[in-house]
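Hi W.,

Here's what went into the run:
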Amino acid sequence: MRRTLDRFVTAIATTCAIAALLVIGGIVTAIAWRGAGALSVEFLTDSMRGAGAAGGILYNLLGTLILLATALAVSLPIATSLALLHGVYLRSERARERLWIALTVTHGIPSILFGLFGLLVFVRILGFGKSWLTGGILLGIMMLPTVSVALAERIRALPAKYVETAAGLGMSPSRIVRSVILPQCAGGLVTGSLLGLARAAGETAPILFTATVFAGATLPRGVVDSPVLTLPYHIFVLSQDSLDPEARARAWAAALVLLALVLCLSLAALPARLRTHEEARHG
Amino acid sequence: MVDATTCGTTDARTILHVRGLAVSAGPRALLRDIDLAIPERRVFGIIGPSGAGKSTLLRCLNRLVDLDESLHVSGDVELDGRSIFAPDVDVDTLRARVGILFQQPAIFPVSIEKNVLFGARHLRRLDRRAAADLAERALRDAALWDEVKDRLDAPAVKLSVGQQQRLCLARALALDPEVLLMDEPTSALDVQSTDAIERLIVRLAPRCTIVLVTHDIDQARRVTDRLACLGLRDGVGRLVQCGPCCELLDGRTNAEVAERLGGGSCCD
Ligand SMILES: Nc1ncnc2c1ncn2[C@@H]1O[C@H](COP(=O)(O)OP(=O)(O)OP(=O)(O)O)[C@@H](O)[C@H]1O
Ligand SMILES: [Mg+2]
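Here's what came out:
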């Protein structure tokens, strides 16, 4: 009886896994199929011309990278502080729970709401206009839960003996954070950041009104009124509005580049994730 | 109950004085009425059944109990005549003076040399020369130098458990502690490693006071000068007996000792 149930569960799990892989494989193949034709070195090193029908996506790629770098710079220190608050400094269980709930809720906020929030606060009230900084900050906030939860999980999994040993050697709490907890849990920070970036790279809604334009921008010179071109918005506009088959083919190629970027970020996080599992298994 | 004077009379000066110590976790009492006088530069043993609060008592002696908010300590511990719970005591300095060695070695995922200097480096500035000298001295003190001298940069986690425990000892010794607390330091080790640690304990005692928690009556016989026995009374750890090791153990078999100490359940 138990045997049969076991097999049944295994079969269902395998089917689901295969289905998921097929879907992912299908998406990748479809994009690669349509996008590969327009892909070339010039496509990556040229700026866009003719409303997307000619040239390349250099500034779109750079713009997306600028947003990601800003998002990382914003979220790393804040996420680290939150994770340390949760794992080290907050003494009451209630406070820790509240922080955790806040992170979970942030994770669940629809990205368009981040966009509207950014529009109101940064674009209108603070008068940034459309700016790469606003986009970076919004994406950074969106990444916060992913990054800080990944780090907090690592801190929680850190065996108490390390902290105890370090304290037993006369190290102060802040020393212990710097010399024991952060070095040993840095993997969580790396994993969380890469996964968060992978998600942020493809987000359109938060940057739509706040940070990006379709054309007419290169590298930002300042903060106020300096939007960037981005890959997701480029794809969005071309596939929605363009009737030109040449431009549509290039949209697919841009999608392929974005996909490759996201895959690279996710794959880069893999070794660190596997290592965590290894550690969990072997203690 | 045992009074502090029967335990404190010795030719050596008392370095740690425990007075009326009690520890509780919420409503539950773990330890009560502990009075001990621990003489300087001797090996002071603590034995007792599992759950009697030996580790908890040890952690009180360098305030590692502070790390656990659920534990409440009352009574006092004096180090060199000064209360370690006084508000002006710097707890990090205290822990450097009163080092601790745990049952399971905890090795940081860095090199052997970095592990040895892990605590020392954070207490005072060390240039390269001084660091190397200190590491060598500590490793020699822990009888590990010959085994690791040509791979100081190798990851310490590759060492055997017995070597790791001696590495932890070296790490504690690098701080020049006045007192070294040892919580069943040999229970995870094989006979040879146990032997090595026991010889080290005897060798270190003239320089540094050692408080050794052990399960093993034979080990207590071999290395301790004085002995305190904790027992469980109604689920609370109490001091049952305290005195010179020879007085408590000589001429008795382990079974008789266990019988006297705590109704047969004292030690394995
Ligand atoms: N933080 C804590 N909260 C609640 N109870 C605790 C805590 N720490 C220890 N205890 C309890 O205190 C008692 C004594 O624990 P302790 O580890 O000091 O015993 P021990 O004598 O060292 O035992 P062993 O020989 O098995 O190591 C145990 O019953 C344990 O469950
Ligand atoms: Mg114990």
